[in-house]
Structures are given as structure tokens and as C-alpha cells.
Amino acid sequence: MHNYKELQSLFAAKLDGEISQINQREPIYLYEPVVYTLKMGGKRLRPVLLLMAHELFNDDIEKALPVAMAIEMFHNFTLLHDDIMDNADLRRNHPTIHVKYSSNTAILSGDAMSILSYEYLNRCKSQNFREIFDVFTHTALKICEGQQYDMDFEREDHTTVDDYLKMIGLKTAILLAASLKIGALAANAPKNEADLLYEFGYNLGMAFQLRDDYLDSFGNTNTFGKNIGGDIVSNKKTFLLLTAMELAKGETKNTLKKAISSAQITPENKIEQILSIYNQLEIGRLTNEKMEEYYNKSLLCWENLNVPNNKKQNLLLIANKMMNRTN
To answer: pLDDT confidence of 100, banded at 50, 70, 90?
Structure first.
């Protein structure tokens, strides 16, 4: 069995080879932004999880590399289009595609990446290809639905915590879940085992996003890698803000609403006021409790996998790493 670092290196080598081939395609200004995006780096979490799931049932990792490429390509496509919609200037400390090139280029190169993901998927030789294709396509559409919900929340005043959890399930958790299930299916794993891995990934993905929300407000700038309070300044509807809006009463709620809506308040004062309310309402504790709830669900799925503990131990290690991350 390979550990996380070994699988990461193995996939990185495959990715470098594919980047070299993409770099030779024409027209240059369609594929150059694709190469730029893929070279930005990242943890490659989703393809590694896919390879890890595959290795639980089949040691021939090479067979899973095409679908791992499909997942990574599709994930980066979603990030590229997210950056356009969010008008983001930076991604992994690099200028985003629409800033470096143009919005039109970013849209078209993003489209090309989504199609390239299916090109890689089509290289899969598993007898379960039809089901793999269905999971991939279903996931792709659900991610679009999640992004639409996220956009809807920006202009709605009645978004609830449950609405938010549904949205991050579609936008974030489902791709982690699909990565694991597709890896298992590519290895011809029993259907019930593939389904358990899907549930494991979904719940882990929910906990992962909640951890991200928590770190944005309560993390350490030095380890988090970006300024604390970015979600607060932008009025992003996270689990923390929506929980605070549901729990706050009287003057506390008025202060919270004023801090959110005021155009005169400085970013520093806004962060200070809202963090003070979060501390008063114990929002950090509540966020961690919800995160632990999803994490415990994922552990139950892990325990029920009919695979020897020594083979599935790496999944547990990566889950723990995701839960305890500081960046």
C-alpha cells in the first residue's frame, strides 16, 4: 500500500506528463491557460483519495490514473470558473486566469478543461465504466447546482443553516465522495463497498468545509496562509454567520445586522465586532461540534468497510490530517 505522499508523487508525475502534452496543443491561447492552471499546484487531494480507494481493492494503480486525471481536471475547471464569478484576483498566490489573460479566455479555457476531463475519463478500461461515467456526470451537474445556490445566497436574506449545509454538500463534499467511489469502481470493488466510500467521502467533505469556515474566523494568520476574517468582511454566508444570525437576540442581533450592513465600518472594526459576537454566542464551539458530527459519520463508514485495517489505515490518516489542518 502506498501512503499519501507516495500517491501524491505518483500522481504528480502523471500530471506533469499530461501537462507537457497539453502544452503542445493548438491554438496556444486556448491551452496555455489550462497549463497555467494545472501548474499552480495544490494538494491534489481528490485524485489521491481516488487512488487510495482504488488500491483498497486493486494494487494496479496505473489503471486508475486516467480517472484520477479526469477528477483533477474537472476540479480545476470549477476553480477557474469560480474565480470568474467571484471576481477573485489570486488563486494559490498566482494571478487568476481572467486577470492574467481575460474573462473570455478564462471562460473558454475552462470549458476546454471540462471537456478534457471527459477525454481522460474515456480512457478508463474498467468493466464498471458505465457506472463510473454516471457518477462523474451526476457529480458534475450537482456541483453546478451547488454553485448556483451559493450565488443565490448572495442576494437572499432568508438563507438558513440547513440551506448552507445543502449547498456545501453539493459544491464541496460531493466531489470528494465521487472521487472515492470512482476509485473503488475502477478497481471493480463490490457496490456496497463503493457506496460506503462515497458516504465516507461526503461526510469528510462536509467536515472539511466546516473546518475551512472555522479557520477563516478563528485560525492563525501565519499558519492559515491568508488574513483572518475574509469571510466576515465580504459578508459571506458561512455556517458561522448563519448560526449567529439564528441564535442572536435583541441588542446582539441588532449589532450583528448593523455590522453586516454598514458601509462606514472599517474591515478591522467589522471583524472585531462580529468575532466578539461569535465568542459571545460560542459559535466556534458550535462549528466544531457540527464538524465532529460529520467526521464521526465518516469514521463509522470507515469502520464498516470490509477491508483489513492495515489496508484502509491510510484513509484514516488522511481523514485525521484533514480534520486537524491549520491551512
So the answer is: very high
Indicate the DSSP class of residue 89.
S
Q: Answer yes or no: CATH 1.10.600.10 is held by domain 1-189.
A: yes
Contacts of 327 (CB under 8 A, 6+ apart): 215, 219, 223, 224, 225
Q: Distance between CA atoms of 87 and 152, rounded to whole angstroms?
A: 16
| Domain 1-189 shares a fold with domain 190-327 | yes
d(CA 120, CA 142): 20
Place of cell 471583524: 271
User: Are 203 and 291 contacting, i.e. CB atoms less than 8 angstroms apart?
Assistant: no
For the chain, what percent of residues have pLDDT higher than 70?
A: 98
> Domain-by-domain residue ranges, the chain?
1-189, 190-327
Q: Is the pLDDT of residue 295 over 80?
A: yes
**Statement: residue 60 has pLDDT above 90:** yes
Q: Is the pTM of this model over 0.90?
A: yes
In this structure, CATH architecture of domain 190-327 = Orthogonal Bundle (1.10)
